[in-house]
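Deviations from the work plan: none for this task. Representative record:
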Amino acid sequence: MSKFPWKTTIAVSAVLAATVYAYAQISSGGPMGMHGRMAQGGMDGSMAQMHQQMMQGQMPQGGMHGGMGQGTHGGMQGSMQGGMGMHGGMQGGMGMHGGMHGQQFGALGAPTMPGQDAFGTIQEVVKILQADPATDWSKVNIAALRQHLIDMDEVTLRAVATERMLDNGIEIAVTGEGRTLEAIKRMVPAHVSELREIGWAAKNEDLSNGVKLTVTASESQPLAKLKALGFMGIMVQGAHHQPHHLMMAKGEFAMH
Ligand SMILES: [Cu+2]
């Protein structure tokens, strides 16, 4: 517990440093000038040092993730709306985690954002399939993946989640109509199975206009956490979507 305030301090300093730096650079050189400076290593002392430490893996994971991955990102985005140069800078910041540092500035001038998340997901999967000589094109089903991504969109953005706290858990009525209802009926029960597999006490019950999801509190999933997570926080548990998306596209996975 004693470590926590220290990490928070790092994260906050990173945001402040980034914000102050961003403003300073914008006012002096504009977004493009900023990139030039960042690329040439013109970061101010604290940023450069942080960068150095990150590259050498010396910073504590939790603290630096909070600082660079989220804190700084948020701070920079906030203060650098629309700054082309900054985008390059942030790509670098995120690339550091993945060890792709060498690509960060080389990619500048060639946009990487697909413009739409489902589009980007399908694009990535198609790329993987095309790169694999073992891909069985007679089974590939991109349309199925697209339908699932529409389900994800409906459940994430349009389903209505009415949460009710129980003495020992949380009960969530997930409801909607039309395409949203179809998505709820497919995704929520499938997710309950996934939750059970990772040890959660979850169950689902059919409603006429949706699905009732109930999660019982446990030692690892205490009541306060379930309350804080709510519907979406519970829906994102586990990392099954990414591999499942590829399987769906390969025609190897029953739709969930
Ligand atoms: Cu998915």
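The beta strands are 160-165, 169-175, 201-207, 210-216.
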